[in-house]
Each structure stands twice: as C-alpha cells, then as structure tokens.
Amino acid sequence: MDGFHYDDIVLENLDLLGKKGSPNTFDVAGFTSILKRLSENSETAVAVPVFDRQLEISRNSANIIDASARHLIVEGNYLMLKDKPWADLLKFYDTTIFINVSPNVIRKRLEHRWKSLTKEVREKKIFENDLPNAKYILENSLNSEFLYETRKN
What we know:
Elements lengths: L7 H6 L14 H13 L4 E8 L4 E10 L30 E4 L2 H11 L5 H22 L5 E4 L4
Parallel strand pairs: 3-4
Antiparallel strand pairs: 1-2
Helix pairs in contact: 3-4
C-alpha cells in the first residue's frame, strides 16, 4: 500500500505534506486498480510500485507480481477503514487480520522510527499526525476476520 503514497511535491501542493501518511495522502484509486488487476489474474504479470523509505519516495513499477502467485499479502494501516474509498477495497480481500498494538508501543516505535529528526520535528510528526492517525484507525476500522493482540505495553 505504501507504494501509493502521493509524492511530497503533490502533498506540498495540496498543503498536506505535514499530514503525510494520513488516509487522504494516498492514491486509493490507483491502489484499487492494482488490486482489481491482481484479483482478476488475467495478465502474465502486474507491475506494482514500492515505497523506498531511504529516499522517501514511491518507485513506480519497482516490483513485478507474476500471475502464478497464489497468495498475496496486502498490508497497510487503512485497509479496513469503514470510510469510502477505503471500504471499497474490502471486496478484494479473502481474509483479514487486524494487529492491535497498544498506543504506548506505537509511540515508542514512532520515536525509534523518527529518531534521526530533531526533537521538535519528531514530536510534531508523532503527536500531530502519526498518533492521531493510529487513534483514527482504531476508532474507524471494520472488524476483521482475525484479531491479533500484542502483549507488549
């Protein structure tokens, strides 16, 4: 899913760069199109984008999924949101799993993820964007077929 992040230039033009990673900063229609193509399995292979974390950019056609692939795991924060257009993706899932992580663990992981940023930028990113996104996911996701609860606090 991360391959469908809008580019930073697009986010800046939309005044959303500070909200990068929020539900409205993804090309959900493009993601839907890829899931549809993969689900139909009528092509020899489907090229998909991959998000490069080192460059902070989506690399188009960076991976190829062959028609012989029998199982695909699609991972992402917003895949079970009850809001459209995200809810329209549900028809492409055969099985759903929600991994429930405590807010404290999420915060610690975010602090580690953004450790290279200055304290001010890191805290703004975590407390004004990432943690509110996590809360939104918990409050607005549909029930999954399976629920995995982490035990760490």
